[in-house]
Amino acid sequence: MAEKLTDTNDNLFNPAASKAARFDKGAAIRKLVPRSSHAEWNPSENREDPVEILIKTSIGRMENLVPLRYSRMMESPFTFFRGAAAIMAADLENTPNTGIDLQLCGDCHLMNFGGFATPERKLVFDINDFDETFPGPWEWDIKRLAASFVIAGRWRKFSSKNCKEFAWHVADSYKRNMLDYSQLSALQIWYADIDLAELIEKGDDEELKEFQQKRLKKASEFTAHEKEFAKMTYMEGTRARIKDEPPLIYHPAGEQWERLEKEATTIHKRYMETLSDEKKVLLIRYALHDFAVKVVGVGSVGTLCGISLLMSATGEPIFLQFKEARQSVLEPHVKAKGKYSHQGERIVRGQKLMQSASDMFLGWTNDSQDKFFYIRQLRDAKVKPVLEIMKSKNMADYAKACGWALARSHARTGDPSVLSGYLGKGNEFANAIAKFSISYANQNDADYNKMLEAIKEGRLPISEEI
């Protein structure tokens, strides 16, 4: 393993060190950790049973939702991969490591990217899920992202050649854009974003471009909260309530509901305390009317997630989404110690470090039992990727966009000159990542089959989803 580059005495992080010197330092790391070494994937002899990892990561989740988690994961190797971040984190610990740490997404797969509105109402393309964010080796994010394209490509039944090309484009785009960021000042990198409209316009598939532009127009036309209010609520006297749509949206019953209802005001107050003063001035005009559990995603199923409905005195709604914040799956596998004892704060701080612009209502809170949460707006002009309609050329373009977005995020908390020096200008790194991604996709297939066997044996419970 290469020497750590995070020592404050290291000239890499001395503002007086030139970009050229830092680039050379990155290039020198190639002698310690050749770029070709990243092609390697050899499971360790004492590799933990992936089913046991899944069982461990279900501890502390809502027991009635754990079967739903496994049901979603068993749909395909791709949905399994989405819920198996802990398995890959354990595997990545045993892969080549340049010793360069920065803020990681932690669950960097292709469905955790997309479009959303900034507080200034500009639509940008970026990473949009940070539940597992934590400082760690930069290679881990790019390996998980590239592998996800191979796995998704197989799910879509693209050729093996296409799938390998998708992974290659992720790494190549990351390399090319990291080189561009290495030429900018730290402030210029901080200002940088990826304009979603411009990104869509660059595409040469006219049919998909028209589809995406219609989605973009729809996302920017309506006020999300008002649309959701009409769809998701009903009036109970003078009070607006969230409609139950079990098993995906529901009010908890019995002791859990009584406890949460009793604590709701305190939990909301603690959340408000984490916001900046101007956000407090805005949200103090709204009162908490109702909240409900909402089942989301694949990896988050079983954690306590939901939506809160806030109303102003004149009847304007705001929907907030709260998500339980648990220990990052990366933390047991990295040397860095967590900076934040509050897991919700860990997620919020990591998100603000990595995103070009974060939700204006992003904050954190906890209940009396020290269950941590982070909070953001529910669906603020979100534009998610629709893999089902993508052709191979579209997937390749999407791989390039994700590689670009990841490079921009890493350039904010890492040193792009060092990273670019290591990556170089040739194809060696992209070739290695493409090979790794194929090997890891095969490992994912094997792990998926082990999960199916465990389900047949009754080790993992499943449920029917309505």
UniProtKB/TrEMBL annotation:
<dbReference type="Pfam" id="PF10009">
    <property type="entry name" value="DUF2252"/>
</dbReference>
<protein>
    <recommendedName>
        <fullName>DUF2252 domain-containing protein</fullName>
    </recommendedName>
</protein>
<dbReference type="InterPro" id="IPR018721">
    <property type="entry name" value="DUF2252"/>
</dbReference>
